[in-house]
Each structure stands twice: as C-alpha cells, then as structure tokens.
Request: fold
Amino acid sequence: MAKIVNGKIILTNEESLLLKDNTEFELIPNQKGIFLLIEKDVVTDVNHITCFVDETDMMKIDKIELEVINKIRTAKLSDLVEGKFELTLNPEQKKALTKLIKEEKIILFKLNETYKKGVYKIAEEKKETIDNTPKESENFNAPTKLLPDYNLQKDGFISTTNTERARILSSEYKEQIESNNLRGIKSFEGVYYLISNALIEKHLGNLIKILEKEKELTIEELAKKENISIELTKIICEFLKEDGELLEKQKGKYKYIN
Reply:
C-alpha cells in the first residue's frame, strides 16, 4: 500500500516493479478517494481525462464495507481491540476498514487515556441518543431479543452481561448519567442495564399502583397489565427492589412491601 511520508509517495516493492520502466508521472484527482497515476509522456491535457467506475465494482466495495461493519457489530469486545481485530480481516476488508475510519463511520474508542490501544466501534452507536418517541419495549407483545440487541433508540435501554462493555457504556454516556437522563443498574442475575430515566418515570408510577392493588404478581402478569415488555418491566422492578419497595419472593414473582 502506497504511503505519503514528508510529502513523498512511498511505494511497496511490488508497486515499484509495476512502474520500473518509467520515472515521471502525473497524479490526477478523479473523484473522492480515487486518483489516476499516468505516464507523463502520455498526458497532453489532464483536464480531458475521465475515468468510469463500474457499478458492480462500487457494489462490491459497499458489500465489503458492510462485511466489516457486521463483523464489528457481532464480534466480542475482546476481539475488537486495535491490532487484534485486523487479524480477522482479509486484505479487501482491511482496505475497507481504513476507508471507514477515514470517513469517521468507524472509530477507535478508549475507555481512558491510560489504555494503549482502542476498541473499534461503529460511530453511529457512540453518537446514539435518546428521544421521547414510543419504544418497541412499550408493548407486551414486543419480541424478546438477545441482550446485546437492545438499544436506546428502539427500546429505551441497553443491556449487557459483559463487565468491560458496561464500563465503556458508563464512560460513553457519562454526561447523560450525571444529568440523570440515563440510569444504570445491575440485576441479581448479573445483567447490566442502562435505561432512559424518562422511560422509567413513565411507567414506574403505574406499576406501583398495580402492585399496591394486586399485592403480588408474576413478571408476566405485571407486564401485561401495564402493556410493556417483560424485559422493560424487569428493569423497572430492579429499581423498585433497590429502593426497598419491592420484594422478589420467588424468581419472577413480585410483592409490593412499602
């Protein structure tokens, strides 16, 4: 891969061999990210030189970029460390990764400056914010997802069993946590949750009223009465348990005690 060092283009041995019979070239910008290197004797008017990229080639590039993004989405946190993640990529995917980083679609995130290497993340995930639109979790019939698939935008909360992932989330959303827009909690089962405080407040009062009336309910019964997902109900009940207002007599069976 060619590099620019102190204003000079440095070529690999393979690239140098391709150009060994010529010494002077014109470097012509063609379109974003694409340049033409043409023998000087061939060029008469660079303004009239054009280049067309086959649409199938562009689709291939997009496909490779998507492969890299999907790898980052599905990989374990420990496999996304700078230097280790690249080992899982083929040469085309490595080029796509470099391009995605340059375009700031993928970023290297460090929990703090003491870490020598960062972790690859999709930029949109880091910039993820919350809003007040109804969430998928505000429906009893919402499909159950794997814990890593819940997100703030769609569900109003994030969940993980990975301690390092929880620390990174706490750092990423530090300002929103400190301003009480987000609240975090760890369940007895070892699941870390980060949830919109507005979502908690929207349903907490209703859940308390239901529990005061019914005295004792299963998680499914409570969720159905409020018409929210079992997972969202479970999270809010964790906060009630922490505040000493709720007792989980058996797993998934709650009694209001305040």
Remarks:
- The longest helix spans residues 55-74.
- Confidence is low (pLDDT under 50) at residues 43-55, 125-129.
- The chain has three domains: 3-48, 55-126, 129-258.
- Residues 3-48 form one domain.
